[in-house]
Give the backbone structure.
Amino acid sequence: MISVLDPVFRGPFWGSILMAIASSIIGAIAFVRKETLLGESLSHSAYPGVILGVIFSVSLGFKQDLAVMSLVLVFGFVFAYLGYLCIRVLQSKFNVSSDVAQSYILTAFLGLGITLASLIQKSHSVWYQKIRNYLFGQAVTMSDIHILFYGGFALIVTFFVVVYFTQLKAMLFDPVFCKNIGAESKIMKHGITAFFALVVVLGMRSVGTILMCGMIVAPAVCAKQITNRFSKMIVVSAVIGAISAAVGVYLSVIVPEVSSLQRLPTGPAIVIVASSFCLLAFLFSAKTGLFLKLYRKFSFQSRCVQEHLLKFLWKQAPNHTTIKDLHNRKISGKLALNLALGKLKRGGWVEKCDNGYSLSEDGRRKAAYIVRVHRLWELYLSKCLGFSEHQLHNCAEEIEHVITPEVEDELTKLLENPQVDPHNQPIPNKEFML
Protein backbone atom coordinates (compact mmCIF):
# COMPACT_ATOMS: atom_id res chain seq x y z
CA MET A 1 0.00 0.00 0.00
CA ILE A 2 1.48 3.35 -1.08
CA SER A 3 1.60 6.06 1.59
CA VAL A 4 0.79 9.67 0.73
CA LEU A 5 3.91 10.58 2.73
CA ASP A 6 6.18 8.42 0.60
CA PRO A 7 9.05 10.62 -0.65
CA VAL A 8 8.46 9.59 -4.27
CA PHE A 9 4.65 9.62 -4.18
CA ARG A 10 3.94 12.72 -2.07
CA GLY A 11 5.20 15.22 -4.66
CA PRO A 12 2.81 14.18 -7.43
CA PHE A 13 -0.01 13.48 -4.95
CA TRP A 14 -0.06 16.68 -2.90
CA GLY A 15 1.20 18.87 -5.72
CA SER A 16 -1.62 17.75 -8.03
CA ILE A 17 -4.22 18.18 -5.27
CA LEU A 18 -3.12 21.74 -4.49
CA MET A 19 -2.97 22.58 -8.18
CA ALA A 20 -6.45 21.14 -8.72
CA ILE A 21 -7.87 23.22 -5.85
CA ALA A 22 -6.51 26.45 -7.36
CA SER A 23 -7.64 25.59 -10.89
CA SER A 24 -11.11 24.53 -9.71
CA ILE A 25 -11.65 27.82 -7.86
CA ILE A 26 -10.62 29.81 -10.93
CA GLY A 27 -12.71 27.44 -13.05
CA ALA A 28 -15.84 28.25 -11.03
CA ILE A 29 -15.27 31.96 -11.65
CA ALA A 30 -14.65 31.33 -15.37
CA PHE A 31 -17.83 29.23 -15.56
CA VAL A 32 -19.92 32.05 -14.12
CA ARG A 33 -18.25 34.54 -16.48
CA LYS A 34 -19.05 32.16 -19.38
CA GLU A 35 -15.38 32.07 -20.32
CA THR A 36 -14.67 28.36 -20.04
CA LEU A 37 -13.15 28.24 -23.53
CA LEU A 38 -10.73 30.93 -22.37
CA GLY A 39 -8.86 28.31 -20.34
CA GLU A 40 -8.19 26.32 -23.49
CA SER A 41 -7.08 29.44 -25.35
CA LEU A 42 -4.72 30.61 -22.61
CA SER A 43 -3.18 27.18 -22.08
CA HIS A 44 -2.34 26.94 -25.77
CA SER A 45 -1.18 30.56 -25.81
CA ALA A 46 1.27 29.78 -23.01
CA TYR A 47 2.95 26.97 -24.95
CA PRO A 48 5.23 29.23 -27.09
CA GLY A 49 6.31 30.90 -23.85
CA VAL A 50 7.22 27.52 -22.40
CA ILE A 51 9.41 26.81 -25.42
CA LEU A 52 11.09 30.20 -25.26
CA GLY A 53 11.66 29.74 -21.52
CA VAL A 54 13.52 26.51 -22.20
CA ILE A 55 15.50 28.09 -25.05
CA PHE A 56 16.58 31.00 -22.86
CA SER A 57 17.49 28.61 -20.05
CA VAL A 58 19.74 26.66 -22.39
CA SER A 59 21.23 29.87 -23.77
CA LEU A 60 22.03 31.14 -20.26
CA GLY A 61 23.52 27.81 -19.23
CA PHE A 62 20.91 26.97 -16.57
CA LYS A 63 20.85 23.29 -15.68
CA GLN A 64 18.92 23.26 -12.41
CA ASP A 65 15.27 22.30 -12.76
CA LEU A 66 14.19 25.11 -10.41
CA ALA A 67 15.88 27.78 -12.50
CA VAL A 68 14.51 26.35 -15.74
CA MET A 69 11.02 26.01 -14.27
CA SER A 70 11.09 29.63 -13.09
CA LEU A 71 11.94 30.93 -16.55
CA VAL A 72 9.38 28.62 -18.12
CA LEU A 73 6.67 29.93 -15.80
CA VAL A 74 7.59 33.56 -16.42
CA PHE A 75 7.59 33.21 -20.20
CA GLY A 76 4.50 30.99 -20.14
CA PHE A 77 2.61 33.55 -18.06
CA VAL A 78 3.64 36.42 -20.33
CA PHE A 79 2.45 34.60 -23.44
CA ALA A 80 -0.78 33.46 -21.76
CA TYR A 81 -1.55 37.04 -20.80
CA LEU A 82 -0.52 38.19 -24.27
CA GLY A 83 -3.00 35.69 -25.72
CA TYR A 84 -5.72 37.15 -23.49
CA LEU A 85 -4.91 40.69 -24.64
CA CYS A 86 -5.00 39.58 -28.29
CA ILE A 87 -8.46 38.06 -27.74
CA ARG A 88 -9.72 41.30 -26.20
CA VAL A 89 -8.26 43.37 -29.07
CA LEU A 90 -9.94 41.15 -31.65
CA GLN A 91 -13.25 41.55 -29.82
CA SER A 92 -13.09 45.30 -29.19
CA LYS A 93 -11.18 46.64 -32.18
CA PHE A 94 -12.18 44.22 -34.93
CA ASN A 95 -15.66 43.25 -33.67
CA VAL A 96 -14.81 39.53 -33.72
CA SER A 97 -17.08 37.27 -31.66
CA SER A 98 -15.67 35.74 -28.49
CA ASP A 99 -15.60 32.12 -29.66
CA VAL A 100 -14.00 33.01 -33.00
CA ALA A 101 -11.35 35.18 -31.33
CA GLN A 102 -10.49 32.51 -28.77
CA SER A 103 -10.35 29.75 -31.39
CA TYR A 104 -8.10 31.84 -33.61
CA ILE A 105 -5.65 32.71 -30.83
CA LEU A 106 -5.67 29.10 -29.63
CA THR A 107 -4.61 27.68 -32.98
CA ALA A 108 -2.21 30.51 -33.85
CA PHE A 109 -0.25 30.34 -30.60
CA LEU A 110 -0.21 26.54 -30.52
CA GLY A 111 1.12 26.48 -34.07
CA LEU A 112 3.82 28.95 -33.07
CA GLY A 113 4.74 26.81 -30.06
CA ILE A 114 5.02 23.60 -32.08
CA THR A 115 7.15 25.40 -34.66
CA LEU A 116 9.53 26.68 -31.98
CA ALA A 117 9.69 23.20 -30.41
CA SER A 118 10.67 21.64 -33.72
CA LEU A 119 13.65 24.04 -33.96
CA ILE A 120 15.29 22.51 -30.90
CA GLN A 121 14.21 18.92 -31.50
CA LYS A 122 17.58 17.89 -32.92
CA SER A 123 19.94 20.41 -31.31
CA HIS A 124 18.66 19.92 -27.74
CA SER A 125 16.81 16.60 -27.75
CA VAL A 126 16.87 16.28 -23.94
CA TRP A 127 15.18 19.63 -23.46
CA TYR A 128 12.77 18.84 -26.26
CA GLN A 129 11.58 15.81 -24.31
CA LYS A 130 11.14 17.97 -21.21
CA ILE A 131 9.10 20.45 -23.26
CA ARG A 132 6.76 17.62 -24.22
CA ASN A 133 6.07 17.17 -20.52
CA TYR A 134 4.41 20.58 -20.54
CA LEU A 135 2.33 19.61 -23.55
CA PHE A 136 0.96 16.38 -22.06
CA GLY A 137 1.90 16.80 -18.39
CA GLN A 138 4.12 14.64 -16.21
CA ALA A 139 3.00 14.87 -12.63
CA VAL A 140 5.00 11.82 -11.54
CA THR A 141 8.25 13.83 -11.67
CA MET A 142 6.96 16.52 -9.29
CA SER A 143 8.90 16.92 -6.05
CA ASP A 144 8.49 18.56 -2.64
CA ILE A 145 9.33 21.96 -4.12
CA HIS A 146 6.18 21.71 -6.24
CA ILE A 147 4.11 21.09 -3.11
CA LEU A 148 5.35 24.34 -1.59
CA PHE A 149 4.96 26.20 -4.86
CA TYR A 150 1.43 25.00 -5.62
CA GLY A 151 0.42 25.24 -1.97
CA GLY A 152 1.43 28.90 -1.88
CA PHE A 153 -0.44 29.62 -5.10
CA ALA A 154 -3.60 27.83 -3.90
CA LEU A 155 -3.41 29.84 -0.66
CA ILE A 156 -3.10 33.12 -2.56
CA VAL A 157 -6.05 32.29 -4.83
CA THR A 158 -8.19 31.28 -1.83
CA PHE A 159 -7.22 34.42 0.07
CA PHE A 160 -8.08 36.59 -2.94
CA VAL A 161 -11.52 35.02 -3.36
CA VAL A 162 -12.36 35.23 0.37
CA VAL A 163 -11.26 38.85 0.80
CA TYR A 164 -12.87 40.16 -2.38
CA PHE A 165 -15.82 37.77 -2.47
CA THR A 166 -18.58 40.41 -2.21
CA GLN A 167 -17.04 42.60 -4.88
CA LEU A 168 -16.29 39.58 -7.03
CA LYS A 169 -19.88 38.33 -6.80
CA ALA A 170 -21.26 41.75 -7.71
CA MET A 171 -18.94 42.02 -10.70
CA LEU A 172 -19.84 38.55 -11.96
CA PHE A 173 -23.62 38.66 -11.55
CA ASP A 174 -24.44 42.34 -12.07
CA PRO A 175 -21.55 44.07 -13.83
CA VAL A 176 -23.68 47.05 -14.93
CA PHE A 177 -24.78 47.83 -11.38
CA CYS A 178 -21.25 47.27 -10.12
CA LYS A 179 -19.91 49.73 -12.67
CA ASN A 180 -22.59 52.33 -11.95
CA ILE A 181 -21.86 52.42 -8.22
CA GLY A 182 -18.11 52.55 -8.84
CA ALA A 183 -17.44 49.11 -7.35
CA GLU A 184 -15.83 47.79 -10.50
CA SER A 185 -12.07 47.72 -10.14
CA LYS A 186 -9.41 47.34 -12.82
CA ILE A 187 -7.29 45.57 -10.23
CA MET A 188 -10.09 43.05 -9.74
CA LYS A 189 -10.55 42.43 -13.48
CA HIS A 190 -6.85 42.16 -14.22
CA GLY A 191 -6.33 40.15 -11.05
CA ILE A 192 -8.82 37.51 -12.18
CA THR A 193 -7.20 37.37 -15.60
CA ALA A 194 -3.72 37.11 -14.06
CA PHE A 195 -4.84 34.25 -11.83
CA PHE A 196 -6.44 32.59 -14.84
CA ALA A 197 -3.18 32.82 -16.78
CA LEU A 198 -1.15 31.64 -13.80
CA VAL A 199 -3.31 28.63 -13.08
CA VAL A 200 -3.11 27.62 -16.73
CA VAL A 201 0.69 27.91 -16.77
CA LEU A 202 1.19 26.17 -13.45
CA GLY A 203 -1.25 23.40 -14.27
CA MET A 204 0.61 22.44 -17.41
CA ARG A 205 3.17 20.66 -15.24
CA SER A 206 0.56 18.25 -13.90
CA VAL A 207 -2.04 17.70 -16.64
CA GLY A 208 -0.42 19.43 -19.62
CA THR A 209 -1.43 22.13 -22.08
CA ILE A 210 -3.85 19.88 -23.96
CA LEU A 211 -5.91 18.85 -20.92
CA MET A 212 -5.65 21.92 -18.70
CA CYS A 213 -9.01 23.26 -19.83
CA GLY A 214 -10.66 20.02 -18.68
CA MET A 215 -9.18 20.44 -15.22
CA ILE A 216 -10.56 23.98 -15.04
CA VAL A 217 -14.01 23.28 -16.44
CA ALA A 218 -15.02 19.78 -15.25
CA PRO A 219 -15.12 20.44 -11.46
CA ALA A 220 -17.02 23.70 -12.00
CA VAL A 221 -19.59 22.06 -14.28
CA CYS A 222 -20.05 19.24 -11.77
CA ALA A 223 -20.47 21.73 -8.91
CA LYS A 224 -23.11 23.63 -10.89
CA GLN A 225 -25.25 20.48 -11.05
CA ILE A 226 -25.13 20.26 -7.26
CA THR A 227 -25.73 23.85 -6.15
CA ASN A 228 -26.82 27.21 -7.55
CA ARG A 229 -25.15 29.30 -4.85
CA PHE A 230 -21.87 30.82 -5.98
CA SER A 231 -20.14 30.44 -2.61
CA LYS A 232 -21.06 26.75 -2.36
CA MET A 233 -20.17 26.24 -6.01
CA ILE A 234 -16.61 27.42 -5.36
CA VAL A 235 -16.23 25.11 -2.36
CA VAL A 236 -17.78 22.08 -4.11
CA SER A 237 -15.67 22.71 -7.22
CA ALA A 238 -12.48 22.83 -5.14
CA VAL A 239 -13.41 19.61 -3.31
CA ILE A 240 -14.21 17.78 -6.56
CA GLY A 241 -10.96 19.01 -8.10
CA ALA A 242 -8.96 17.82 -5.09
CA ILE A 243 -10.63 14.39 -5.06
CA SER A 244 -10.14 14.04 -8.82
CA ALA A 245 -6.44 14.81 -8.50
CA ALA A 246 -5.97 12.42 -5.58
CA VAL A 247 -7.82 9.55 -7.27
CA GLY A 248 -6.17 10.22 -10.65
CA VAL A 249 -2.65 10.18 -9.21
CA TYR A 250 -3.40 7.11 -7.12
CA LEU A 251 -4.81 5.22 -10.11
CA SER A 252 -1.82 6.08 -12.25
CA VAL A 253 0.43 4.45 -9.66
CA ILE A 254 -1.67 1.58 -8.36
CA VAL A 255 -3.12 0.20 -11.65
CA PRO A 256 0.18 -1.34 -12.86
CA GLU A 257 0.69 -2.94 -9.43
CA VAL A 258 -2.66 -4.72 -9.33
CA SER A 259 -2.95 -5.62 -13.01
CA SER A 260 -0.91 -6.33 -16.10
CA LEU A 261 -1.82 -2.96 -17.60
CA GLN A 262 0.75 -0.29 -18.24
CA ARG A 263 0.94 2.79 -16.05
CA LEU A 264 -1.81 5.31 -16.71
CA PRO A 265 -0.62 8.82 -17.61
CA THR A 266 -1.23 10.93 -14.51
CA GLY A 267 -2.63 14.04 -16.22
CA PRO A 268 -5.20 12.22 -18.35
CA ALA A 269 -6.14 10.04 -15.36
CA ILE A 270 -6.92 13.17 -13.30
CA VAL A 271 -9.04 14.67 -16.08
CA ILE A 272 -10.85 11.36 -16.66
CA VAL A 273 -11.78 11.15 -12.97
CA ALA A 274 -12.99 14.78 -12.96
CA SER A 275 -15.01 14.13 -16.12
CA SER A 276 -16.49 10.99 -14.53
CA PHE A 277 -17.66 13.04 -11.54
CA CYS A 278 -19.21 15.46 -14.01
CA LEU A 279 -21.01 12.64 -15.82
CA LEU A 280 -22.32 11.25 -12.51
CA ALA A 281 -23.62 14.70 -11.62
CA PHE A 282 -25.44 14.92 -14.96
CA LEU A 283 -27.05 11.54 -14.31
CA PHE A 284 -27.77 11.57 -10.56
CA SER A 285 -27.89 15.22 -9.48
CA ALA A 286 -30.71 15.88 -7.02
CA LYS A 287 -31.52 19.10 -8.87
CA THR A 288 -31.17 18.45 -12.60
CA GLY A 289 -30.02 14.83 -12.93
CA LEU A 290 -31.24 12.79 -15.90
CA PHE A 291 -32.43 9.93 -13.69
CA LEU A 292 -34.35 12.36 -11.49
CA LYS A 293 -36.10 13.76 -14.57
CA LEU A 294 -36.93 10.26 -15.77
CA TYR A 295 -38.22 9.34 -12.31
CA ARG A 296 -40.43 12.44 -12.19
CA LYS A 297 -41.74 11.72 -15.67
CA PHE A 298 -42.49 8.08 -14.79
CA SER A 299 -44.15 9.09 -11.50
CA PHE A 300 -46.38 11.62 -13.22
CA GLN A 301 -47.39 9.19 -15.96
CA SER A 302 -48.11 6.55 -13.33
CA ARG A 303 -50.27 8.99 -11.36
CA CYS A 304 -52.20 9.88 -14.51
CA VAL A 305 -52.98 6.21 -15.14
CA GLN A 306 -54.08 5.77 -11.52
CA GLU A 307 -56.41 8.75 -11.71
CA HIS A 308 -57.89 7.55 -15.00
CA LEU A 309 -58.52 4.20 -13.32
CA LEU A 310 -60.24 5.87 -10.39
CA LYS A 311 -62.47 7.88 -12.71
CA PHE A 312 -63.43 4.79 -14.69
CA LEU A 313 -64.26 2.80 -11.54
CA TRP A 314 -66.28 5.74 -10.19
CA LYS A 315 -68.37 5.89 -13.35
CA GLN A 316 -68.96 2.11 -13.22
CA ALA A 317 -70.16 2.18 -9.60
CA PRO A 318 -72.00 0.48 -8.00
CA ASN A 319 -71.09 -2.33 -10.40
CA HIS A 320 -67.79 -4.12 -9.99
CA THR A 321 -65.21 -3.94 -12.76
CA THR A 322 -63.16 -6.90 -13.92
CA ILE A 323 -59.57 -6.75 -15.05
CA LYS A 324 -60.77 -7.66 -18.54
CA ASP A 325 -63.00 -4.58 -18.58
CA LEU A 326 -60.03 -2.43 -17.60
CA HIS A 327 -57.88 -3.89 -20.36
CA ASN A 328 -60.66 -3.45 -22.91
CA ARG A 329 -61.00 0.19 -21.86
CA LYS A 330 -57.36 0.69 -22.99
CA ILE A 331 -56.63 3.23 -20.32
CA SER A 332 -52.98 2.31 -20.68
CA GLY A 333 -50.71 -0.60 -21.54
CA LYS A 334 -51.21 -3.83 -19.61
CA LEU A 335 -48.02 -3.48 -17.58
CA ALA A 336 -48.68 0.15 -16.61
CA LEU A 337 -52.31 -0.69 -15.85
CA ASN A 338 -51.39 -3.60 -13.57
CA LEU A 339 -48.77 -1.50 -11.76
CA ALA A 340 -51.26 1.32 -11.24
CA LEU A 341 -53.94 -1.06 -10.03
CA GLY A 342 -51.52 -2.65 -7.57
CA LYS A 343 -50.53 0.77 -6.21
CA LEU A 344 -54.17 1.78 -5.79
CA LYS A 345 -54.87 -1.43 -3.86
CA ARG A 346 -51.87 -0.86 -1.59
CA GLY A 347 -53.00 2.72 -1.00
CA GLY A 348 -56.45 1.56 0.11
CA TRP A 349 -58.31 3.27 -2.75
CA VAL A 350 -59.37 0.13 -4.61
CA GLU A 351 -60.77 -3.08 -3.13
CA LYS A 352 -60.73 -6.51 -4.76
CA CYS A 353 -63.86 -8.59 -4.53
CA ASP A 354 -65.15 -11.81 -6.08
CA ASN A 355 -66.61 -10.12 -9.14
CA GLY A 356 -63.72 -7.74 -9.80
CA TYR A 357 -62.63 -4.40 -8.40
CA SER A 358 -64.48 -1.53 -6.74
CA LEU A 359 -63.61 1.72 -5.00
CA SER A 360 -63.18 2.00 -1.27
CA GLU A 361 -64.65 4.96 0.59
CA ASP A 362 -61.40 6.92 0.26
CA GLY A 363 -61.20 5.89 -3.39
CA ARG A 364 -64.69 7.24 -4.07
CA ARG A 365 -63.75 10.61 -2.55
CA LYS A 366 -60.55 10.75 -4.54
CA ALA A 367 -62.29 9.77 -7.79
CA ALA A 368 -65.11 12.24 -7.20
CA TYR A 369 -62.56 15.03 -6.78
CA ILE A 370 -60.86 14.12 -10.09
CA VAL A 371 -64.22 14.06 -11.88
CA ARG A 372 -65.13 17.38 -10.24
CA VAL A 373 -62.00 19.24 -11.41
CA HIS A 374 -62.34 17.65 -14.86
CA ARG A 375 -65.89 18.93 -15.30
CA LEU A 376 -65.12 22.31 -13.74
CA TRP A 377 -62.32 22.79 -16.24
CA GLU A 378 -64.58 21.78 -19.13
CA LEU A 379 -67.12 24.36 -17.98
CA TYR A 380 -64.41 27.01 -17.66
CA LEU A 381 -63.16 26.31 -21.20
CA SER A 382 -66.67 26.45 -22.59
CA LYS A 383 -68.04 29.40 -20.61
CA CYS A 384 -64.99 31.65 -20.28
CA LEU A 385 -62.77 30.76 -23.23
CA GLY A 386 -65.33 29.79 -25.83
CA PHE A 387 -64.04 26.31 -26.63
CA SER A 388 -66.27 24.15 -28.80
CA GLU A 389 -67.87 21.11 -27.21
CA HIS A 390 -65.75 18.52 -29.01
CA GLN A 391 -62.53 20.16 -27.72
CA LEU A 392 -63.44 20.13 -24.04
CA HIS A 393 -62.82 16.52 -23.02
CA ASN A 394 -59.28 16.12 -24.36
CA CYS A 395 -58.14 19.44 -22.87
CA ALA A 396 -59.63 18.59 -19.50
CA GLU A 397 -58.04 15.10 -19.60
CA GLU A 398 -54.62 16.73 -19.80
CA ILE A 399 -55.09 19.46 -17.20
CA GLU A 400 -57.05 17.58 -14.53
CA HIS A 401 -53.88 15.97 -13.13
CA VAL A 402 -52.20 19.27 -12.26
CA ILE A 403 -55.14 21.28 -10.89
CA THR A 404 -54.44 22.09 -7.24
CA PRO A 405 -57.12 22.59 -4.55
CA GLU A 406 -56.42 26.33 -4.71
CA VAL A 407 -57.16 26.41 -8.45
CA GLU A 408 -60.26 24.30 -7.88
CA ASP A 409 -61.51 26.85 -5.32
CA GLU A 410 -60.90 29.71 -7.77
CA LEU A 411 -62.77 27.86 -10.51
CA THR A 412 -65.69 27.23 -8.16
CA LYS A 413 -65.90 30.95 -7.28
CA LEU A 414 -65.45 32.10 -10.88
CA LEU A 415 -68.15 29.75 -12.17
CA GLU A 416 -70.43 30.48 -9.18
CA ASN A 417 -70.46 26.94 -7.76
CA PRO A 418 -71.95 25.19 -10.82
CA GLN A 419 -73.91 21.95 -10.59
CA VAL A 420 -73.57 20.58 -14.14
CA ASP A 421 -70.87 20.61 -16.82
CA PRO A 422 -71.33 21.62 -20.50
CA HIS A 423 -72.57 18.08 -21.27
CA ASN A 424 -75.27 18.40 -18.55
CA GLN A 425 -73.41 15.85 -16.42
CA PRO A 426 -73.59 16.53 -12.66
CA ILE A 427 -70.48 17.95 -11.04
CA PRO A 428 -69.75 16.04 -7.80
CA ASN A 429 -70.50 18.14 -4.76
CA LYS A 430 -67.41 19.22 -2.83
CA GLU A 431 -69.08 18.56 0.54
CA PHE A 432 -69.26 14.85 -0.37
CA MET A 433 -65.46 14.71 -0.52
CA LEU A 434 -64.81 16.27 2.91
In short: Residues 10-284 form a domain with the ABC transporter involved in vitamin B12 uptake, BtuC fold (CATH 1.10.3470.10). The mean pLDDT is 85. The two ends are 67 Å apart (CA to CA). The longest helix spans residues 230-258.
